[in-house]
Amino acid sequence: MNSPQPPLLRDARPEDLDALCRLEQACFAGDRFSRRQLSHLLKRAKAVTRVVVDEHGELQGYGTLLFRRNSRTGRLYSFCVHPERRGGGVGRRLLAALEAVAVERGMQRLSLEVRADNRVAMGLYRRMGYLPRRWLDDYYVDGCAAWQMDKPLADTAVDEGLADTAATAERIG
User: Fold this and answer.
1) pTM here?
2) Which residue has the higher pLDDT, 109 or 1?
């Protein structure tokens, strides 16, 4: 009997666009990226989008990093795991891999914004070493506040043996 393959982590591709749109719908009630926005992120030179794909080729999660010229701080611009896959380590592994990408790009810190009412995401980020730095009133379209969080990356990904994962697909199970 064959056991299921662990999820695959890889760079997002243009042909993932429809699946990324479906994932946005499944993960976010509001403030979702449009198809056009997602397409733009996939083409941006200063952005990296990684996806988690199951054994059937279905996207289980994705994360996008943005980089600015002359900055050592990267931004986790979007991050989501399909609701049915949460709690199984997919988010933790995806976030660790994105941190490794940031380290490879010379980043010393990652920052992000998270809805103040998203306790699950805040818990993941805290467990991964992110600390709340600034409260952002009325940050989201619906008026919800956000926490800006960040994490120093000094050798974080290197210590976990993930520093060479940016350009290669890998099994994350």
Assistant:
1) 0.83
2) 109
